[in-house]
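On clarity, I found the account of how folds are encoded harder to follow than it need be. What matters is that the chain and its backbone geometry are given together, residue for residue. I therefore recommend that a typical entry be quoted early in the introduction. An entry of this sort, consisting of the sequence and the corresponding backbone structure tokens, reads as follows:
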Amino acid sequence: MSRDTAELAAFDDVWNATPSREHRRGGGRGGVIAFLVVVLLLLLGGGGYTAWALTAPVASPALSVTAPPTPVGERAVLALPTQGAAMISVEGAEEFLGPDAAGVWAATGGNDVQPLAATASPG
């Protein structure tokens, strides 16, 4: 055998040996303790971050209000009928039209009695 193989063969009993019961029990206890320490550190770290985040100062809000631009369109033109009668009234317009207007904003035709479509049909 060569020198390296002879040295490896000398450690054959170490490779095949199983640890004693006492040795295994102590290693298991150390693993459990290490696991518990890691879990404790994670919990404390999460709790510490939560406490820091909840008590961190928050900038005061800045409020700015601006009215959106309102486009002004062209003036509306009402097409009143040339035959018959029509009237446009505006509820609550007495303040703007005057007390004698009775809410009438625009009218066409006369004050004569006009037949209605439902009663003017031949019978």
User: Anything to note?
Assistant: Strands lie at 86-89, 104-108.
